[in-house]
Amino acid sequence: MKTRAEQCKEEGNKCMKDGKFTEAVIHYSEAVKHEPSSAILHSNRSLAFLKLDQLYLAMEDAKQAIKLEPSWPKGFFRKGEIEFKAGQYQQALVSYKRAMILDPSDSGIISAINKTNKEMAKDKKEATRTPILYTILGLVVGALIVSADQFLTKAPALKFLPLQVVLIAGCGGIGFAIAKIKRYLIVSQRDSSLEEPLDLLKEMGEHHEVTPQNSSPHTTTSHTHHSQAAGRQRMRKGKA
């Protein structure tokens, strides 16, 4: 007879095949409750989270699978998949290679390594090429501004060559700076995708817990005196 964990695992697997990833997470989570030491269950749930783009949760399960079964290549492979999805190609390559050490004959791991190498080379090329393109674009814009000033206005503002050169160079510098900022934002976004998300409910709960403690004794005392005075006033009206 199948255990409850096995039943939930099969239901989760069926949901994965049907593309119902949220339901798969629910079933795998129930299975994990009954069998928390199963690396396979954590790996399966990690994949479901990955399909939902919940990279932090996917990574947590992948790490747990590795912790439970350090000699199991699937745990490192799953970790590599998550890192690849996050755009962290160097880390993904390390994880895939660790998986390959444990199982050198797995064609899926070899294919993932080749794919990561290609994507990493493409990313490096893009990081090098973008500043050059943006700088050239800035120089072109600067040259157009100077040309427009010289030929489309009756009284050009940039009469002297040094000013024209400074303007064109400045536009090129702005283009270069924009490219660098763009790259910084891309890298920051990749890094943040694996960070723990902010628990707003927890933060709000802590805020509400702290609020009563911030009320001063003077405020409490004033409220008490006000209540007592109001009570005496009502009593006097009642007697009258």
UniProtKB/TrEMBL annotation:
Species the sequence originates in: Elysia marginata
Entry keyword annotation includes Repeat: yes
Keywords: Membrane, Repeat, TPR repeat, Transmembrane, Transmembrane helix
Domain of life assignment: Eukaryota
TPR repeat start-end pairs: 73-106
Pfam families attached to this UniProt entry: TPR_2 (PF07719)
Transmembrane segments: 132-148, 160-179
SMART domains: TPR
PROSITE patterns: TPR
Protein name: Stress-induced-phosphoprotein 1
